[in-house]
Design brief:
Radius of gyration: 30 Å
Number of helices: 19
CATH topology of the largest domain: Rossmann fold
Distance between the termini: 109 Å
Number of domains: 3
Structural class: alpha/beta
CATH class of the largest domain: Alpha Beta
């Protein structure tokens, strides 16, 4: 069959005006995909290439465009990407949900294919900023689920009846609005009766046939789930925490989890797939509690799960959601949103809502309001900048990956240290070392302390050698951190000195790396796990380095003996 398909395809390329051969190729692909999915999908891809080639050559545009849609429909049962494209085929591209967002959200769709089609996952966690389409994407995927497997019962749970009703109405619209969506074309064999298969009051929807447990049931977490649904399809947990006020209430968090554990999860059969989406307000929210179980409790070792967090701004401080046709959010937009939170001293809400980084405020050491900021270095009575007592730096070395090289530069005036520059980069040595050299020279740093652990000693020697080659005189010291004290303890012990005696640039004066370091600093909590502590640890090193680099000297006047 494969050889016959290839010969037929080659004939079609040589005879672009012959539409009958394309119809024959379509029939072969449709028949094959039911018996051999991989081969059938390969036929579909080849057929789409042929049809797009004909469209590029302006050959029978209307007919070939329809044929591409038919190929996508064939693929739809085995590809969520193809399904989402086929579903909105009749809509103008700018009005579609999937097409403008595809290049950004495609990794999420591949994850969901592993959850629902490839059976590689049992549970999936996704966090995205507000209004980036996570709930709508799940709605579209659920519309695929009820079409492909109409006998399965699916359950949607959220924090309020309003959200549940919106999800129910959204699925109803996809199935019933035939002028906008092609759901009926994709699943023509699935029965749907708008008169008997819908219940707006109870927010359930049925496809295929009326069953005891419906194709979709929507319930708020505070409503009764007993008897409402036995989920053997997809269980969707969407924003179970309503907001920051609820997240900061330990009793409410405990109550929500009890309802999740006793009511929601127990509704799911062992074969059901589970999807968790929502704003990560707290490490103690239901998503955080569930992740903690899956990661650390050996009894859950057999469950396959994946966590995907898509923050508003990436490590380069650029937007992750620049969708096509202007429906996304620019870097400037997110940076302005962040500045708004920072101006009100609410860095934690920015990190939770937009960066997917939950913070326990009770355990946060460096709250934005606890630090002191400056716009300029101290000046004399004539308005000239006073020379500092000394300029020194410390380097917490890293060699790319998730860890950041952190080098704050301190201008010391008496007991007060002004952090006037900061190298903060998670690139490799080829990226960070030139930055370190440039920063040391630009600030005329006189002394620099490197932590010797994990290759820091060799890094320091290379920096020292490079500076010597250009005759830049600097005192460089490297020393191993003591193994008798953890990083968290070191940060905690030095936190009082940092809060009292360190000064930080105001928001408007920070460059991108300085801002990234400050955000990491604000998010550090002694209650959290697997978090970044590079910025805080380098400041603790600086606090301790004062004693190491600048020990006081004693002197005595005596008569010369000779």
């Amino acid at each position: 069959m494969a050889g016959y398909f290839s010969r037929l395809r080659d004939f079609a390329y040589k005879n672009p005006n012959n539409q009958d051969v394309v119809v024959d190729l379509l029939k072969i692909a449709q028949k094959t995909i039911n018996d051999d999915t991989k081969l059938g999908m390969s036929y579909c891809r080849q057929l789409k290439d042929l049809l797009w080639d004909r469209l590029d050559k302006r050959i029978d545009i209307k007919e070939n465009y329809k044929l591409i849609h038919k190929v996508l429909i064939i693929e739809s049962r085995y590809s969520l990407d193809s399904y989402l494209t086929a579903l909105e085929w009749n809509r103008p591209i700018k009005e579609r949900f999937w097409q403008p967002r595809r290049k950004i959200l495609l990794p999420v769709i591949h994850d969901l294919e592993d959850l629902l089609i490839n059976d590689k996952l049992d549970e999936y966690f996704i966090s995205q900023p507000p209004r980036t389409g996570k709930s709508t994407l799940v709605l579209f995927v659920l519309s695929w689920q009820v079409g492909v497997s109409p006998e399965l019962a699916n359950l949607y749970v959220s924090n309020s009846g309003t959200l549940c009703n919106a999800f129910y109405q959204g699925l109803k619209e996809i199935i019933t609005d035939t002028s906008t969506y092609c759901w009926r074309e994709i699943f023509p064999e699935v029965a749907f009766d708008a008169n008997s298969f819908l219940n707006a009051k109870e927010t359930w929807l049925e496809v295929g046939r009326v069953k005891r447990y419906h194709s979709l049931t929507c319930r708020s977490i505070d409503a009764s789930l007993n008897g409402a649904c036995d989920c053997n399809g997809l269980l969707i947990s969407d924003d179970l925490v309503s907001g920051i006020e609820e997240a900061l209430n330990p009793e409410r968090m405990s109550s929500v989890w009890q309802k999740v554990d006793n009511n929601m999860i127990t509704r799911a059969k062992e074969t059901a797939k589970v999807m968790w989406i929502g704003t990560r307000w707290s490490i103690k929210d239901p998503i955080g509690v569930r992740i903690e179980m899956l990661q650390n409790d050996p009894k859950f070792a057999g469950l396959r799960f994946k966590i995907r967090n898509m923050p508003a701004l990436n490590d380069k401080d650029e937007s992750n959601f620049e969708y096509d046709y202007g429906v996304g959010f620019s870097t400037d937009y997110y940076q302005r949103r962040r500045a708004s939170f920072e101006n009100f001293g609410d860095e934690a809400s920015w990190l939770a809502q937009y960066q997917g980084s939950p913070i326990e405020r009770s355990g946060t050491i460096f709250a934005p309001e606890s630090l002191t900021y400056y716009d300029e270095l101290p000046k004399d009575k004539d308005g000239k900048t006073l020379p500092p007592d000394r300029i020194f730096a410390v380097v917490d070395v890293a060699f790319n990956g998730s860890d950041f090289l952190s080098m704050p530069v301190g201008y010391q005036y008496g007991d007060i240290i002004y952090i006037d520059d900061w190298v903060f980069d998670n690139g490799n040595k080829a990226t960070t070392q030139p930055k370190v050299l440039q920063c040391l020279m630009k600030n005329q740093v006189s002394s620099c302390y490197f932590e010797a652990n994990n290759g820091g000693e060799f890094y320091a020697e290379e920096v020292k050698k490079a500076l010597a080659e250009i005759n830049f005189v600097i005192n460089i010291m490297s020393k191993y951190a003591p193994n008798t004290i953890s990083k968290n303890d070191r940060i905690f012990r030095c936190s009082t000195d940092i809060i009292s005696n360190f000064r930080f640039k105001s928001t408007a004066r920070r460059n991108k790396e300085y801002s990234m370091a400050m955000r990491q600093m604000f998010s550090f909590t002694i209650l959290g796990k697997k978090q970044h502590e590079d910025a805080c640890d380098s400041l603790a090193m600086m606090s301790m380095a004062r004693a190491i680099l600048f020990r006081g000297a004693s002197f005595e006047i005596f008569q010369r003996p000779l």
